């Protein structure tokens, strides 16, 4: 590899592949990076001024390298054939039917990518697993490749991506660690070193960890499970805070001060979302079950159950405070993305909360600075795999979607509304003119803060009835049953 320019090809130009390859290209001017995808519109967007994903700092990085050593193409086979290192970053959704439906990862895209690699390769390849996949996927991929190899040598590596959306570029520039798993054979070690050399362009050596294949694959699932578990833990405590008069922010601060626990990732919320946490935990659960470990499976399943409970608890707070019905009432929803600084809505808690409100026949008016009406309507019409969802979070009928309107302004969304739900922690929601919003709402006017970003005392002074997650309750809410 060392005597010629290294060529990298990444299959899948999504939230992971796009930003990761852009940063590799920026940091490694001596490497040519081509990102390929079967989706023509996606590649066109990557080649345009409007990138297909919103990510702070990404535009800048792409502009610096695109056309120099960073390319986006739909000519998948050509670029795979030419590459030395192939990253596979295709989607791995949860299976919706068949064996393991609702839990196991759907590896259809992965498998077809692997078969394509086997078909078109004429030289030795290092194939790098980048999308989160179940443990032992590398083994399956290895089998597909070696059984179709035509004498070509394939080395499979697992190099899970730990970036978080909204901070992807920052995370890629300064990763806590880069993890590379490979076979413990001479060929495997050489491949690990080749990938290590790529990252060593900008990541300090002591942050590049090398392990065996299974450790790398499992570490990704475990890390996401631990992170999600912290949120479910603090959210579970938030319910108890509301019942007792404790304040979850004070409790989380006090708990997080213990350096063994740490202060990060302890914000109580309406629930976690995103493409990874639920999917990866479901994966972990399925793997445990398949390996005869039902106790371990149930332990992790509980993290998702608390997350579903937190979303339904929120809906119940809204409905019960408004005299047990939101039928025909306008409810404003501020924020639909699963977190701030992204337009991504995969598994966003807003979907379940909106479906819950729609189930009670509310009229909802949604504003999110980065999510299109099209996306919202699609999300709310979509059927989720019904693995363990409470009754009132059942999918809505297509007609219910007519109860939804989307607007491009928070004041428009809240005009004439009975209640206002904050579901994403966008910075701009902290500085809205809440007096103006109050003046234009029906009375009594309610605020349900699913992200604890507004000061409940200030809003109460204006006249709102305020619900914040895990905070001492208004007298109004105390009399209302909150738990289904
Ligand atoms: C996550 C992991 O952080 C990342 O390392 C992994 O590679 C992919 O999955 P991401 O899903 O992009 O990243 O976002 P993250 O910041 O982890 O947030 C996930 C969800 O948890 C969001 O809905 C967020 O709002 C919620 N959250 C996060 C909380 O409710 N409270 C917190 O304290 C932190
Ligand atoms: C604990 C708390 O640490 C302390 O803050 C609180 O005031 C009292 O309870 P203690 O029980 O004395 O203190 O010991 P600790 O070090 O927390 O260990 C508790 C148990 O966990 C021990 O049996 C220890 O062996 C075990 N442990 C700890 C592990 O198995 N793995 C670990 O990583 C850490
Ligand atoms: P992630 O968040 O993991 O990056 P995305 O869904 O954003 O996931 O991106 C995955 C991308 O992979 C999609 O753009 C999809 O079109 C692409 N993809 C899936 N299968 C293939 C394939 N066989 N060849 C090329 N691209 C593929």
- How many domains make up the coordinates? 2
Largest sheet: 6 strands, parallel
With helices defined by DSSP (H or I, 4 residues minimum), what is the helix count? 18
CATH topology (fold) name of the largest domain: Rossmann fold
Strand order of the largest sheet: 3-2-1-4-5-6
Residue runs with pLDDT of under 50 for 5 or more positions: 385-396
Q: Strand pairing plus helix content: what structural class? A: alpha/beta
Which hetero ligands occur in this complex? Answer: uridine-5'-diphosphate-xylopyranose, adenosine-5'-diphosphate
> What is the CATH architecture descriptor of the largest domain?
3-Layer(aba) Sandwich
Beta-strand fraction estimate: 5-15%
Q: What does the radius of gyration come to?
A: 24 Å
The level of helicity is: 40-55%
Provide the residue-averaged pLDDT.
93
CATH class bucket of the largest domain: Alpha Beta
Taken from the alpha-carbon principal axes, the silhouette is elongated
How many E strands?
14
| Corresponding CATH superfamily of the largest domain | NAD(P)-binding Rossmann-like Domain
Distance between the amino and carboxyl termini: 61 Å
Compact summary:
With 484 residues, the chain is α/β, with parallel strands linked by helices.
Walkthrough of the structure:
- Belongs to the UDP-glucose/GDP-mannose dehydrogenase family.
- It holds the Pfam family UDPG_MGDP_dh.
- NAD(+) binds at residues 12-17, 37, 42, 90-94, 131-132, 165, 276-279, 346.
- Its EC number is 1.1.1.22.
- Involved in the biosynthesis of UDP-glucuronic acid (UDP-GlcA), providing nucleotide sugars for cell-wall polymers.
- With 484 residues, the protein is an alpha/beta fold.
- It has two domains: 7-203, NAD(P)-binding Rossmann-like Domain (Rossmann fold, 3-Layer(aba) Sandwich); 245-478, Rossmann fold (3-Layer(aba) Sandwich), CATH 3.40.50.
- It is built from 18 helices and 14 strands.
- The protein has helices at residues 17-27, 40-46, 58-65, 76-82, 108-120, 137-147, 168-173, 186-199, 213-244, 248-256, 277-290, 294-321, 349-359, 373-381, 410-414, 434-439, 456-462, 475-478; strands spanning 7-11, 32-36, 70-73, 85-88, 125-129, 154-158, 178-182, 208-212, 330-334, 363-367, 404-406, 419-422, 446-449, 465-468.
- The strands form three sheets. Strands 3-2-1-4-5-6 form a six-stranded parallel beta sheet, sandwiched between helices.
- Helix 8 links the parallel strand 7 (178-182) and strand 8 (208-212).
- The longest helix is centred in the middle third of the chain and has 32 residues, at 213-244.
- Residues 385-396 have low confidence and may be disordered.
- The site of one uridine-5'-diphosphate-xylopyranose (UDX) has 19 residues, from helix 9.
């Amino acid at each position: 590899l060392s005597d010629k320019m290294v060529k990298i090809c990444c299959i899948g130009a999504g939230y992971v592949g796009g930003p990761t390859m852009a940063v590799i290209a920026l940091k490694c001017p001596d490497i040519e990076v081509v990102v390929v995808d079967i989706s023509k519109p996606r590649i066109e967007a990557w080649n345009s001024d409007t990138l297909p994903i919103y990510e702070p700092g990404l535009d800048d990085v792409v502009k610096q390298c695109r056309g120099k050593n960073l390319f986006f193409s739909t000519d998948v086979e050509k670029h795979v054939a030419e590459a030395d290192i192939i990253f596979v970053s295709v989607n791995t959704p949860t299976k919706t039917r068949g064996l393991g439906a609702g839990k196991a990862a759907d590896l259809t895209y992965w498998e077809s990518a692997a078969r394509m690699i086997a078909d078109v390769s004429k030289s030795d390849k290092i194939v790098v697993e980048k999308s989160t996949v179940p443990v032992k996927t590398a083994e399956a991929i290895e089998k597909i490749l070696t059984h179709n190899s035509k004498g070509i040598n394939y080395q499979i590596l697992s190099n899970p991506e730990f970036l978080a959306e909204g901070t992807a570029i920052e995370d890629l520039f300064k990763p806590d660690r880069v993890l590379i798993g490979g076979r413990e054979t001479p060929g495997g070690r050489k491949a690990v070193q080749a990938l290590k050399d790529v990252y060593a362009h900008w990541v300090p050596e002591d942050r590049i960890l090398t392990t065996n294949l299974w450790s790398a694959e499992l570490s990704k699932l475990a890390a996401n499970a631990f992170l999600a578990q912290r949120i479910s833990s603090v959210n579970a405590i938030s319910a108890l805070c509301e019942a007792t008069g404790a304040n979850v922010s004070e409790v989380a601060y006090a708990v997080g001060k213990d350096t063994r626990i740490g202060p990060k990732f302890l914000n109580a919320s309406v629930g976690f979302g995103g493409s990874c946490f639920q999917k990866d935990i479901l994966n972990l659960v399925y793997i445990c079950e398949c390996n005869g470990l039902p106790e371990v499976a149930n332990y992790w399943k509980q993290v998702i159950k608390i997350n579903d409970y937190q979303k339904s608890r929120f809906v119940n707070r809204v409905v019960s405070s408004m005299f047990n019905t939101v039928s025909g009432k306008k409810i404003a929803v501020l924020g639909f993305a699963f977190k701030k600084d992204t337009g991504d809505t995969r598994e966003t808690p807003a979907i379940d909360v909106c479906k819950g409100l729609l189930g009670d026949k509310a009229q909802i008016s949604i504003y999110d600075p980065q999510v299109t009406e099209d996306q919202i309507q699609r999300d709310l019409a979509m059927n989720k795999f019904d693995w363990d969802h409470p009754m009132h979070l059942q999918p809505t009928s297509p007609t219910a979607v007519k109860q939804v309107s989307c607007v491009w302004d928070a004041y428009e969304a809240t005009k004439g509304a009975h209640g206002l739900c904050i579901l994403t922690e966008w910075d701009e929601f902290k500085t809205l003119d809440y007096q103006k919003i109050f003046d234009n709402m029906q009375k009594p006017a309610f605020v349900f803060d699913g992200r604890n970003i507004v000061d409940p005392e200030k809003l109460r002074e204006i006249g709102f009835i305020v619900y914040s997650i895990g905070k001492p309750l208004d007298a109004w809410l105390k009399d209302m049953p909150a738990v289904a």
